[in-house]
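Notes to self after the Tuesday call (sharing in case useful).
The group wants a holo model before anyone commits to mutagenesis around the pocket. I volunteered. Ligand is calcium ion. Logging inputs and output together so the record is complete.
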Amino acid sequence: MVLRDKNSERSHSNLTRNTILIASVMMQLAWFCVGAQNYPEMITVEGGSFTMGDEGGDKDEKPVHKVTVGTFRMAKTETTVSQWREFCIATRRRMPEAPWFGQHDDHPIVNVSWDDAVAYCTWLSEKKNQRYRLPTEAEWEFAADGGKKGRGYLYSGGKTADSVAWFGGKSHGTMPVAQMLPNESGLYDMTGNVWEWCSDWYDAAYYEKRVSDSPKGPSTGKFYTLRGGAWDIGARNSRNTYRNPLSPSSRNHNKGFRVVCEQSK
Ligand SMILES: [Ca+2]
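Result:
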């Protein structure tokens, strides 16, 4: 009888230990999964040449000129609220003010300035031991055009903005990323949802220089460029070639970003 009780206690103890062990492994696995989701998923955009600008566009989109960019990796989606929160927790930053229309973890982060976006890239670079940064205008436009797989669409992945984007008041705020169709490279929401900060200083006359090899924009300026339009922006200003200059410290409800990562050598 006594022996049976001892066995029972031992069995119970083993069961408890195993339960704790399994729970610990499950928690670590969950943490790993959540952590993995909190970093941008990157897609390789194979380098190539394309025609930058639009002869039918605004003056700063001309002249149309041939540009070549190298291979890089680009985030499949705009940086999300949940990805931004990970950065804020790690760096003890305050989350930006939520927009008036509300947002969920899978929405693109908004109310982030160019400076904020660059700080995120710096943090992610250290975290992943790879160089993350904002895309150049040339990289952004090449990727939005679908890269080497591009079919020459005016919008990223489609002939009309309606087929591929949250734009022009189609929604009453930002929407979860990757709900619309991807473009030819597998990138989502390059057109619409939120404007995306690029690394280039804005110069309306920059295309006149016809820099053809991986242009990075002028060396200085007053504004940085955003691309792609947003959920409350009309179709014309959401074209792949449209350039939107804004002060680096500006933040609002329709501007966010996505990162690129230089190809590992
Ligand atoms: Ca976008």
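Two things stood out.
Strands lie at 42-45, 48-52, 65-69, 72-75, 132-133, 195-201, 224-227, 244-246, 255-256, 260-262.
The first helix runs from residue 2 to 37.
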